[in-house]
Amino acid sequence: MSQNKTLFERSQKVIPGGVNSPVRAFKSVGGTPIFFKKGLGSKLWDEDGCEYIEYINSWGPMILGHAHPQVLKAVQEASFDSLSFGAPTKRELEMAELLVKLVPSIEQVRLVSSGTEATMSAIRVARGFTKRDTLVKFEGCYHGHADALLVKAGSGLLTFGEPSSAGVPEDVAKHTLTLPYNDIDALKTLFKEKGDTIATVIIEPVVGNMNLIIPHMEFLKTLRELCTKHGAVLIFDEVMTGFRVHLGGAQALYGITPDLTTLGKVIGGGLPVGAFGGRRDIMQCLAPIGAVYQAGTLSGNPVAVAAGLATLKLVQAPNFYEELTKKTKSLVDGLTKAAHDLDVKFSAQSVGGMFGMYFSEKAPTSFDEIMQSNKEQFNQFFHHMLSSGFYFGPSAFEAGFVSISHTDQDIHQTIEAAKKAFKVLK
Ligand SMILES: *Cc1c(COP(=O)(O)O)cnc(C)c1O
């Protein structure tokens, strides 16, 4: 029997569902999750010794590829000086200075240990600053698993949300409003009715958590204008897009400045680092100088920050994002052509090092549209590619990722394998 099966059976006895984060369980695509043992560059090896070219990058962080020697060296060096102090260190200052320098909207920043912590804390400081409670988010965006964010739309546009997870009190969910992505009219209506009660709007400026959805520029511009007009704090959740679509994040790519930004994934280079930052007047509301409490035993952890600093140093290389964008585009263009040559209803697109592929004629622009894509075909494609040694995200509703270590040869092989997979789709 394969090690993957044996290990998954053992895991299910002691870990709920056998996994420490739900998407890893392959529930959406069916079959047994792969247990990985080793990674190098664009490749992974599982516990059976099978080799894969991978397109998840650990859901984003591994933008340099796996086991990058300079990142490993930085981690080793930092670790010899102790793993944690719970006191200020020079490395975290260097990380903060770098984020302020590279991300246009960030004047001050605080480090945390995950994206979930970053968004949760950004929302709290936005509420403390505005002295309002209402939180607005968009359907299909994911911002971590804090209570206030596990909320789906109520029965009408202007009705408050309902919990989307058991264990979230209605009293918490009732402060969250959910709007459709890319819908300018819905935005205008909401602000007209409730604008002056809105504390904050949180958005993925390019969505990566319902597969890839690209924002309409007019939508983002309108959102920025309405938040400014009504005194609501605009949070760009760039946990995924930060240092992934552009050196300065989606805000630099589109030229729109949010009030607060949340970061994670790439800024830890594979170790747990998150951050939230933005306007100085808002960030000054945080304890110990302000009244909004936020803290963390391992926040700014020296080893994690060393991995992040080494990663951020390398992404500043000349033409890094041009090259990453080109690689990713060559993958999606190749896949699209292969599918169309075989009359498969398929589309694909990319922004920087993120991509989406959809079993639908046109690339979707909202949650409703993505839900109409052919999930069964995605699952067949996924399993065919997996058994041929190509590891994509195990769900039709996740974005894909290309690292700078992916070679033209890797991408060529992937497209050749995809041709075979497209041929056998039912
Ligand atoms: C991954 C992600 C999060 C959550 O980050 P974790 O580190 O998993 O807690 C939040 N927002 C976005 C946009 C993400 O992609």
Automatic annotation (TrEMBL):
Location (main, coarse): cytoplasm
Cofactor requirement: pyridoxal 5'-phosphate
Protein name: Glutamate-1-semialdehyde 2,1-aminomutase
Documented EC number(s): 5.4.3.8
PROSITE patterns associated with the record: AA_TRANSFER_CLASS_3
Family: Belongs to the class-III pyridoxal-phosphate-dependent aminotransferase family. HemL subfamily.
GO annotations of cellular component type: cytoplasm
Molecular function per GO: glutamate-1-semialdehyde 2,1-aminomutase activity; pyridoxal phosphate binding; transaminase activity
CDD domains in UniProt: OAT_like
Residues found modified as N6-(pyridoxal phosphate)lysine: 265
Subunit structure: Homodimer.
